[in-house]
Amino acid sequence: MDAEHFRDFGKAAVDYIADYHESLRNRSVLPNVQPGYLGELLPEDPPQSGESWQDILQDVDKFIMPGLTHWQSPNFHAYYPTASSFPSIVGELIIAGFGMVGLSWIASPAMTELEVVMMNWLGRMLELPEEFLNCSEGPGGGVIQGSASEATYVALLTAKEKKVKDLLEKNSNLTEAEIKGKLVAYSSDQSNSSVEKSGLLGSMKMRLLPTNKEGQLTGATLQEAIKRDKEAGLIPCYVVANLGTTPTCAFDNLEELGPVCNREDVWLHVDAAYAGTAFVCPEYRYLMKGVEMSDSFNVNLHKWMLVNFDCSAMWIKNAKYLVEAFNVERIYLKDQHKGLAPEYRHWQISLGRRFRALKVWFVLRIYGVEGVRKHVRHQIALAQYFAELVAKDQRFECCSCSMGLVTFRLKGENSLTETLLNRLTEEKKFFLIAGHFNNTYVIRYAICSRLTEKEDVDRSWNEIIRIAGNIVPWKIT
Ligand code: PLP
Questions:
Q1: 41 CA to middle of ligand 1, Å?
Q2: Structure pTM?
Q3: Which helix (H) or strand (E) holds 235?
Q4: Which of 44, 245, 348, 377 could form a disulfide bond with 250, CB atoms 3.0-4.6 angstroms apart?
Q5: What is the pLDDT of residue 475?
Q6: Under 8 Å between Cβ of 96 and 326
Q7: Which structural domain, as residue segments, surrounds residue 247?
Q8: Is the CB of 198 under 6 A from ligand 1?
Q9: Cβ(145) to ligand 1 under 6 A?
Q10: Structural domain includes residue 40
Q11: Nearest to 90 by CA among 28, 4, 146, 21
């Protein structure tokens, strides 16, 4: 394909995407296909000679579109949002168009430099302590990872290397292998699956500690667990605090956890994958009080900050530890600018890196800080509106409402709520998922799409109460 054909193909694709977004409200959010459907429709072998882009685009519509779950639909309320916005989509196109891999500063200087600037913009937007920023006097800095999972894992590996080095320097009578075998990490039983996975991947015991009724890990629980492990001869190393848990968007209290971690010399990582974006709004910053006591902090721009997947912002208070942990040099990676700009390959797992900062730049410039705030506040207001609808109907109980996430259930046996969710899912018009709240079965209702409006919330609620009417046939308002 030459540049002339690319112009036509690209323009047609942009029209296709715009049409798709405009049609989302009228589509069933869940597809009506069975596992293996696509294998039956596509040829077993690739074509021997090239085909026309028109045929391919048509086949996207014919074969792929029917198998899509429409994450950007205003009727998608599952999981957490996966952000998408037009400036970010264009950013992705241009990133692909440049076709670069940022191995080092010289591999494409603008890549590193824009990332440094964007991470500072974002850090100031969230009002993170200055020492986390690239521009501070100290060794702090920000980097874009692919996912929160990677950020949690990178922080765990860094904490591990630091702890081993510190203990060996203090002339511990343990060998490196013995120290590594005794390290322990902690988080809450509400933390995301990726936190437990980081322990598995990093070969570190991960204790998922019980939370209080609000889904928070308290300082006392953490302190007690650390005490017990020390008494058993283990070495506490790493804590992941949650600002916005996946089940109910609960916030751990950093003012309680921070002093425990600092006193015990344990690395504190903050997973604010979803809710971290809310800190662009001054009224929510009280929820991150104590963040200055953490060692690393992460927020997924691809969840709530209008930047398409994948784009996860991570800050580290002392990036020296990170670079020491992951620095592997080769002659083909050397350049003479060493030390003058971050060599981000040492801050992550893979060697190559994408130019993700470009799409962040597009989003922040098109929306502005105020635009992002408006988006966040609008989605929180919609969730509160949904929670009010639930609370008004006496058949239901609203279990939690935090940020853009509501959990609710039908009063009585769990099976009633389970039946409600199953019937709703069978209809495929709205997509909600199950969760647990204080050991009861609940339905999670998250405001995900930037297209969701009050009327969409009303429509989904009307559908919920219509189905509920067949399960629990009375209503008192
Ligand atoms: N942390 C929290 C609180 C999450 O809700 C999620 C995903 O929903 C993750 C981490 C994992 O995010 P990622 O897919 O970017 O690894």
A1: 34
A2: 0.95
A3: strand 235-242
A4: 245
A5: 56
A6: no
A7: 100-354
A8: no
A9: no
A10: no
A11: 21
Q: Which ligand 1 atom is the nearest neighbour of the CA of 79?
A: 8
Contacts of residue 139, defined as CB under 8 A and 6 or more positions apart, other chains included, come to 317, 318, 319, 320
- Domain with residue 168: its CATH number is 3.40.640.10
> Does residue 254 fall inside a structural domain?
yes
Q: Rounded CA gap, 104 and 123, in Å?
A: 23
* Confidence check on the interface: ipTM exceeds 0.90, yes or no: yes
Residue 275 Cα to ligand 1 midpoint, Å, equals 10
d(CA 376, CA 405): 12
Q: How many domains does the chain have?
A: 1
Full DSSP string of 243-267:
BS-TTT--B--HHHHHHHHHHHT-E
Residues of the chain with pLDDT under 70: 136-137, 338-339, 473-477
341 within domain boundaries: yes
Run of H or E residues at 440: strand 440-446
Query: Which atom of ligand 1 approaches the CA of 80 most closely?
Result: 8
Å from CA of 273 to ligand 1 middle: 6
Q: Is the CB of 188 under 6 A from ligand 1?
A: no
Q: Is residue 53 part of a domain?
A: no
- In the predicted model, what is the mean pLDDT of the chain? 95
pLDDT, tens digit, 9 for 90 and up, residues 193-216: 999 999 999 999 999 999 999 999
